[in-house]
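Objective 1.3, modelling of assemblies. Example input:
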Amino acid sequence: MSEHIAHHDEHRDDEGSKLGIWLFIFTELLFFGGLFITYAVYRHGNQEAFHLAGKELNVTIGTINTVILLISSMTIAMATTSIQKKDKRTTLALIAITLVLALVFLVNKYFEWSAKIDHGIWPGSPLLEELGRGDTLFFGLYYFMTGLHALHIIIGMVLIAVIYRRVKNDRLTHDNFQLLENGGLYWHLVDLIWIFLFPLFYLIA
Amino acid sequence: MSSKQTESTGYRSYLEEDGGRKGIYKWILSTDHKRIGLLYLYTMMGWFVIGVVLGLLMKLELIAPGKTLMEAQAYNATFTVHGVIMIFLIVIPGLPAVFGNFMLPIQIGAKDVFFPRLNLFSWYIYVFGGILVIISLFGNGAPDTGWTFYAPYSFKTGTNMLPAALGAFVLGFSSILTGLNFIVTIHRMRAPGMTWFKMPLFPWTLYGTGWIQLLATPVVGITLLMVAGERILGIGFFDPTKGGDPLLYQHLFWIYSHPAVYIMILPAMGAVSEIIPTFAKKTIFGYKAIVFSTLAIAFVGYFVWGHHMYTSGMSGTALWAFSLLTFIVAIPSAIKVFNWISTMHQGSISTEVPFLWAASFIFIFMIGGLTGLVLGSLATDVHVHDTAFVVAHFHFIVFGGVGFAFFGAIHYWFSKIFGRKYDPSWAKTGWITFFIGFVTLYGPMFYLGIKGMPRRYFDYLEEFHGPNIISTLGALVMIAGFVIILVNLIKSARSGEKTSEMNPWGGTNLEWQVPTPPPLENFDEIPTIDKATYKYD
Amino acid sequence: MSDTNHHIVPYRTYGLILVLLLVLTGISVAVTQIELSRWATLAALLLACTKSVFVLAVFMHLKFDHTIYKVMVVFIMLVMAAVIVLTFFDYGFR
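Predicted structure (C-alpha cells):
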C-alpha cells in the first residue's frame, strides 16, 4: 500500500468548502421550513385536537431520542478537536460512537412507528379518518416530518461512515480535515431539526 | 487591468482541449465550465423548440372559437406541459446555466467555478429532470393541472402528476446546486484586487439570483413532496375533507414561485447591464444603485407571493399587505430602467444586434412591469385575474425579459464563445421579425383579458374572435423570426467566418481580455485588478 | 474572508455545552408536564431556540468563525420568520 502523505494543497480552499456546506444547510432549513409553516398553520386551526393527539406520543422515547442526538452532536464536534490534536484513535472512537448513537435513534423510531401502526395510526388509515381532522393533520405531519428527518439521519450516517473510513486511511488528517468538519455541520443540522420537532410533537400535551 | 496572454505558441482554445476523450465524452464528462455552459445551451434549445411547438398548438387551437385542433383535455395538458418546460427547463436555468456558467469565472478572473464536478452533476440532474417530464407524457397522459399544480385537483387528477412533480423536484436540485456553486465562486475566487464593488454587474446578478435559488427552491421542493404524499398516502395536507387547506398549497407554491421570477429576470437584467455600456461607449450610470437594487429585488421579492392569490380567499389583512409589498418591489426595477436609459443618454450608440435586443428588452420589460402594477393593485386585479391579461403580462415580462436578454447575450458573446462571427444582417432581420411578431402575439391579449376572456380555456365567446386571429398570426411571425435567428446562430457556430478578435465590441470586462475563444483555464496568469469596471475614458 | 482558522475547541467546552443542552431539555419536559397550556408551548419553543443558539455557536463553531457566517444565519432566520408572519397575515385574520 502506498504511503499517503497528507499535505496542504495550495489549490485547496477549505473555507470555501465550509461555505458550501453552510449554504447547503440553509437549503435544508428552508426545506423543513415549509413543513414547519404547515405545522404552524394547522396547529393554529386545530389547537385542541393537536393538544389531545399529542398525548398519543411517548414523551419518554422522545426525550431519550433527543438526548441521544445531543450526545452524538457532541461526539462528532469533539472529533474535530481530536483530529487537530493528531489523536487518530480518539477521532475514530468518537466518530464510531456518533454512528452507533444514530443507529439507536433509528431503532427507537422504528419501535415508535410500529407501535403507532399497530394501533391503527398511519397516513391515510381508516382510524385516522374516523378520528377526524385535527388527528389526521397531526399524525400526517408527525409521520412526514419525522420520516423526512429519519431519512436525513440515514444520509448523515452514510456520510459519517465515509468520514470514518477516510480518517482510518489517513486521507483525513490534522491538516486536511474539512470533510470531517463539514460532515459534523450536517449532523448538527439534523440535531437542530430534531430540537424543534421534539417540543412541537411530544411536548404539546 | 493587466494580464499576460500568449496568443502565439501554446495557445489552444477550450474547444480544442478534449481531456483525452473522444466524441460525445469530450462534452458529457468535461468539468470545464465553458463546455457545461454549452451543454446547457444545446439541451435548452431542444426543450425550447418543443415548448414553442406546444405554444403554437395552443395558438392554432385559439384561432377560432370551439374546437379547432383539440378538445379541452388535450388543451389542458398542452398548456401544462408548455408551462412546465418553459418555466423549469428554460427560464429558470436560463441565463445562469448558459452564460453564468460560461462567463462568470472569466468575468471575475477565475479558472473555473468553485465546484466543477458539482457543476457537471447539476447538468446531469437537469437532463434527468427533463427525462422525468417526458415520462409524464405517456401512460395516463400528461398532467392537466397547469404548471402550478394546484391542490386539490393535482392530487385527484388521473393524469401523470407524479413523474411531472418529481421532474420539477429534481430540476429544483439542479437550480439549487448551480446557485450554491456560483455563490461560493463569487465569494472565494475573485481575482486579486477585485473587490465586491469592482465586480461587473452580471456576476452581481448571478450572486443575488444564487441566493434566491438557494433559499426559495427548497420550499417548492417540499411542497411537491407533500403533493406526492397526498397522491400516494392520502395524507391530508391539502385535502379539505381531511382538514387540509388547499390555500396552504398555494401559499407554499408561490413562496417559491414568486421569487422564482426574480431568478429568471435578475441575470437577464445583468446581461443588459453589460451590453448597454459597451454599445453606448459610456460607463454604466449608477453602478452601486444597480447593485443595491439587484439585492433589494432579491430580498423584497420573498414577501410578495400573495399577489398571485388575491381572489383565492385570503384574509383582508393579507390582501393589502401583499399589495403594498408588491408596489414596493417595483421600485428597484424602475431604478434599473432609469439607470440603463441614463447610460445611453449622451453615449455614443452603435446599433449592433446585441444593443437592439437590449434596447427592445427595456421597452418590452416596461410594458410587462407596468401591467404588473395593474395586477398588483387589488381592485383592478379582481377584474383581470385568470384572464388573458395575466398571460400577456407574464409573457411580456418573462419571455420578453428573459428571452430578449438571452438573445442579446448570445449575440454579444457569440464570437467569444465560438470563435466565429454570426451574419449581422440576418440577425437584424430575425430581431425585427421576432419583435413585431412578439408584440402582435401578446399585445391583443391585454385587450382580450380586460374584455373578459379567461385563460386556460380552449374555447371562447365569439366576440373575442378578431383579436385572437391577430394574436395567432403574431405567433406565426414571431416563430418565423425565431427560426431566422436560430438558423443564423447554428450555421454561424458551425461554419461562420472564424475570428480571433479579442474585443470586437470594445467592452471593458475581463472576458474581452482573454483570447477568442478562451483557453481551457481562461487565464495564463490570474490578473490583478486595479481599476473600476465599465470605465470608458 | 480569512482562511480557515485553526482554533481548537477544548473537549471540556463541548462537554459543558452538552450538559447545558441536557438541562434545557429537562426543563422543557418538566415545564410542559404542568398544565400551562399555551404558555407551555411558548416556553418549550423558546427553550428550543436557546438550545439551537448553543448548538450553532459552539458545536457548529459560529462563535469562532468569521462574522459572515453569523450574518448569513441570522439573515436566514429573519427571512423565514418574515415568511411565517406574512402567512399568518392570512391565517390569523380569516
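Residues 11-91 of chain C form one domain.
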